[in-house]
Write a structure and sequence with these properties.
By secondary structure, the chain is α+β, with helices and mostly antiparallel strands. The chain is built from 13 helices and twelve strands. The N terminus is likely disordered.
């Protein structure tokens, strides 16, 4: 029988407890709350010790950190300038609906122009490299923007101070300015140390440091902005925020005034150009009228048109009279009592007869003679045809008719001459009217240009006067509500944060 080797029986290993005193890790990689609580309960001395150590470390760091003071100034978007200028200035273009004017104003407070003004005003480019020499002993600081970055070595004596900045040296008593070229300052009093070092940082660096440390936060639901600055020097914190808000207000006023000045200068130049163009246009109109010898081409055209209408009307009247008298003359020339009687009756009814007194006189004489003949040839005692008086009257009637015929013929000739003269006059007037429309159009163009330039000049002059008045308004749209007082207690927040952070780290 073959003999086979059987494998040894595998038994589960016994739990291993190391000699290091730590409990085994819970299964499946999970940590229960009870497990953590058990660990804390069994190791509470270690937890308390490390937590206390973390707290002590936080207290130590907090004690080594300089106290921080908070300066707060308040400004408000008031719109005072707009209230004073009204419509004298063009309204500010409306921004997009998503733009918040208070947030925009808060960004402007921290703009480089404002921060640069604060840096230049307070001399924030100057830093102390000696801890025992605080900058509060330095006053009247003035640093030119082009000042180089370099250290300033100060040596203090009993009666004054000696300073060296680069290759330049200066001496001055305490309280008197030290002039180092691009840097100038004074020492308020003698310090207790023999020497100290200052450093001039670049202007852009000082502006960036101030911008990072200063904040401008709008208050929710208001038009008020809080300007906040933290510093280890309470007086510096106060001066920075107060200088910031006052500089921002002054810069806003200067900006608005400069804008009004530029607008006034632009309108002034435009007004000069407009007045010059208006003067030339008026001279062109005067020269045109002088050349044409007309006060107004349009008025001359209107007069000429009225004259033509009057000539046409008068000629029509004369032609009507010519037609009437021509017909009468034809009937009178035909002869016969019937034709002559009809013509005389028509002549009596014609309204044009009053225009010719000669014809009227002959007509009246003929009427009188005819009446006398009718009186002698009618009735019971009528005269015989051979009556010498009757014969004489009939002879006078014939003579008067001839004279009337000649008078009518002469009147017809006169009417023809007048009609011909009116026709010639109308032709001449019509010929002169052919150039009047072009003259009137040219004059209308010149006059319209004068009127347009006059209106433009008046509008520019009004805007110029408004710009002049707006330039005199020394107000902006920002009001300083509160200036910061000197902070009397440091801000405890930073120290508490460090202690709390030490507690958490120690506990972990």
């Amino acid at each position: 029988m073959a003999q086979f080797d059987l494998p040894a029986r595998q038994l589960p290993p016994a739990p291993y407890y190391g000699g290091d005193g730590f409990e085994p890790h819970p299964t499946a990689g999970t940590v229960s709350a009870g497990y953590i609580f058990g660990v804390l309960r069994r190791r509470y001395k270690l937890v308390l010790g490390l937590t206390l150590l973390g707290i002590l470390g936080g207290v130590y760091l907090a004690s080594r950190t300089p106290a921080s003071y908070k300066g707060v100034a308040t400004i408000r978007l008031a719109g005072e300038r707009r209230a004073l200028t009204g419509e004298m200035e063009n309204p500010t273009p409306q921004l997009d609906r998503t733009a918040d004017p208070l947030l925009s104003l808060a960004q402007l407070v921290r703009s480089k122009s404002v921060m640069g003004a604060v840096v230049d005003s307070l001399g924030l480019q100057l830093m102390s490299m000696t801890p025992e020499f605080p900058l509060k002993l330095v006053g009247d600081i003035h640093i030119a923007p082009e000042a180089p970055s370099d250290s300033i070595v100060l040596n203090f004596y009993q009666n004054g101070v000696k300073a060296k900045f680069g290759s330049r040296e200066a001496r001055a008593p305490y309280g008197q300015p030290l002039d180092l070229g691009t840097v100038r300052f004074s020492l308020v009093s003698a310090p207790t140390i023999p020497s100290a070092s200052l450093y001039v940082v670049p202007r852009e660096q000082a502006i960036d440091q101030l911008t990072a440390a200063l904040s401008a936060t709008p208050r929710l639901g208001t038009d008020v902005i809080d300007v906040v600055y933290f510093s280890s020097d309470p007086h510096l914190a106060q001066r920075v925020v107060n200088t910031t808000v006052t500089s921002f207000k002054q810069l806003s006023i200067l900006s608005a005034t400069e804008k009004s000045k530029r607008r006034r200068e632009f309108l002034e130049s435009q007004l000069k150009q407009t007045d010059s163009m208006l003067a030339r246009a008026q001279a062109e109109v005067a020269a045109f009228r002088s050349k044409q010898q007309l006060a107004s081409s349009s008025a001359a055209l209107d007069d000429q048109q009225r004259n033509l209408l009057a000539l046409d009307a008068r000629r029509a009247e004369l032609e009507a009279d010519r037609s009437t008298f021509g017909t009468l003359l034809t009937q009178l020339k035909k002869g016969g009592d019937a034709n002559e009687g009809e013509a005389i009756r028509a002549l009596a009814a014609s309204p044009a007869m009053v225009d010719n007194p000669r014809v009227s006189d002959y007509y009246r004489q003929l009427s009188i003679l005819q009446y006398r003949v009718d009186s002698m040839t009618t009735g019971p005692w009528k005269a015989a045809p051979t009556n010498p008086d009757l014969i004489a009257l009939k002879s006078q009637i014939a003579t008067t008719k001839d004279q009337l015929r000649q008078a009518v013929s002469s009147h017809v000739t006169t009417l023809d001459a007048r009609i011909s003269a009116l026709g010639n006059l109308r032709a001449r007037n019509a010929s002169s009217m052919q150039v009047l429309p072009a003259m009137a159009e040219e004059e209308a163009r010149l006059t319209g240009r004068v009127q347009s330039l006059t209106s433009t000049s008046d509008q520019v002059r009004r805007d110029y006067q408004n710009a002049r008045m707006a330039e005199e308004v020394e107000a902006g749209d920002v009001d300083v509500i509160d200036l910061s007082g000197t902070p009397y207690s440091p801000v405890a927040g930073a120290a508490l944060v460090k202690v709390a952070l030490g507690f958490l780290l120690g506990l972990l």
